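Student: Hello, beginner here. Can you help me understand the protein record under this note? Any guidance would be welcome.
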Amino acid sequence: MQDIITVTGNVAGPPEFKITAGGLPVVNFRLGSAQRRLDRSTGTWVDDGTNWYNVSAFRGLAEHIAASVTKGEPLVVTGRLRLRPWEAGGKKGVSIDIDADTVGHDLRWGTTTYTKQATAQGTASAAPVSPDDGQDSWAAPGLDGAAAAPAVGSETPF
């Protein structure tokens, strides 16, 4: 059984992108998730430490993270949790690792712009969709709210 975890936090350093000897794209970065709690006696929020996670992603997700994520940005990461014991220099510990399945910006703290990756059928539009646009397929509204047509030669823009 795999433990799936979702964590919110900030990127601690620039993501490190590399291609393995076997040609597999991989990106690694550290994610810090600050813990805060309400001190009921004073009615104020107090810092209660930071949990640190080593995040790894592979293939297309790795490439997208490398192109989209920078140090300090708030993220939401979902993936498989792995606890890895380590020993070095007479010290022992446990590394908390996440093999990411999904990574996105935490939109509580700002905005982002999404660009859909080009597909074999052409580039699909990546703008958000109004849930009540009355269309059966996804349409991409422009910034002025006007709906754009799906990409030519495809039934849906995905």
